[in-house]
Amino acid sequence: MIQFSDIRFVKNTEIDNEKWDQCIQQSVNGIVYAYSWYLDIVCEGWNALIVGDYELVMPLPSARKYGVHYSLQPLFAQQFGVFSQTILTAEVISAFIKAIPSKYRLIKIHLNTFNPVVKNRIFTEGITYELDLIKSYDGLYKSFSNNTRRNIKKGKAGNIYTVSGGQPNVLVNLIKENVGTRLKFMGEEEYSRIRRIISQSVRYKLGQMYCAYDDTNNLVAGALFVETKGKVIYLFGSSNEAGIKKKAMFVLVDQFIHDFEENNLTLDFEGSKSEGLARFYAGFGARQCNFPVYSENRMPWPVKYLYKL
Questions:
Q1: pTM score over 0.90
Q2: Dist CA 11 CA 45 (whole Å)
Q3: Based on CB atoms within 10 Å of each CB, which residue in 157, 190, 218, 237 is the most buried?
Q4: Which residues pair with 213 in a beta bridge?
Q5: What is the Cα–Cα distance from 301 to 75, expressed in whole angstroms?
């Protein structure tokens, strides 16, 4: 049984990245977001909570502004939490939460789907959508919604075709010119991070890009899928106006599912507060899964009411 006293806070400069990554690789709930190289990209200077010789670990995104230390979930990383080679209990998760140093005054961290918690006011639920790919394509296709099947047929009838592979900038520019125009928080720093994530995931042989083209060979949609520990994450995806009109992303995801049928893999679409995206994910037969989100405002009264998580 893990006790509060077993958990130590480790600064970024003191973390052994090799042992850290070995822990994530061997964990029952290892996921790409938790590898040291990924953390270095999305939350530079991250710290950690560690038990023993890296038997259990928890990344802590760390930053400071106006003298206030905070730990907030970064962009491009849906789930963090505690990682372990053995099944975790709510008591262990609680011990890790209590071990977060008091210097962190504002905290919002997404745990993962393998982190059970006792529900109370500091926990809410995040949403993701997952699809098991163990069945044959025909079996998976039966669970597609009628609307999804219709859009796949429409895309194929419009001669949309897909190609696996591609250069990072192809997808980065597609995101920047389409999705990025609607997201004010996206700047050059964010696009640089996306580019680095794509490059590193391909370098480590974890990521695979898919691109969709129309009948005149123009790029109309693209996506990055990243696989670790039996889970494939639909990490980035974007379509331009022509791609949206021609249902290119339906064809692209359908092709990916077809390519990876009958594999002991789970396709994680990540979640979204957008009803349209949630409907898109569910249309392929993906089921909604939840993970805990830990939020706490430790600022003193009355200052705490000036900060909202």
A1: yes
A2: 8
A3: 237
A4: 161, 219
A5: 29
Query: Could you write out the DSSP letters of every residue in 8-69?
Result: EEE-GGG--HHHHHHHHHHSTT--GGGSHHHHHHHSTT-EEEEETTTTEEEEE--EEETTEE
What is the Cα 65 distance to its own chain's centre?
A: 25
Q: 16 is written with which tokens?
A: 């052994």
H-type helices in the chain, by residue range? 17-26, 36-42, 90-99, 137-141, 146-157, 168-177, 188-203, 241-245, 248-259, 275-282
Contact 228, 176 (CB under 8 A): no
Task: Answer yes or no: are the C-beta atoms of 268 and 130 closer than 8 Å.
Answer: yes
Q: Which amino acid is at 261?
A: E
Q: Which stretch of DSSP H or E encloses residue 123?
A: strand 123-132
Task: List domains and CATH numbers for the chain.
Answer: 4-127+291-306 (3.40.630), 134-264 (3.40.630.30)
Tracing tokens 């789930």 back to the chain, one arrives at 79
Alpha-carbon distance of 126 to 289, in angstroms, equals 8
> What are 125's two structure tokens?
């639920």
Best CA proximity match to 20, nearest among 42, 60, 48, 45: 48
Per-residue pLDDT reduced to its tens digit, 26-74? 999 999 999 999 999 999 999 999 999 999 999 999 999 888 999 999 9
The residue with tokens 């209990």 is 89
> Is residue 184 a contact partner of residue 190, using CB atoms and an 8 Å limit?
no
Structure tokens at 182: 């609607």
Q: Is 76 left (phi over 0), alpha (psi -120 to 50) or beta?
A: left
Amino acid in the structure at residue 83: F
For residue 300, cis peptide bond before it (omega within 30 degrees of 0) = no
- Judging by DSSP bridges, how do beta strands 287-297 and 7-10 pair with one another? unpaired
Nearby residues of 44 by Cβ (< 8 Å), 6 or more positions away: none
**What pLDDT is stored for residue 304 in this prediction?**
65
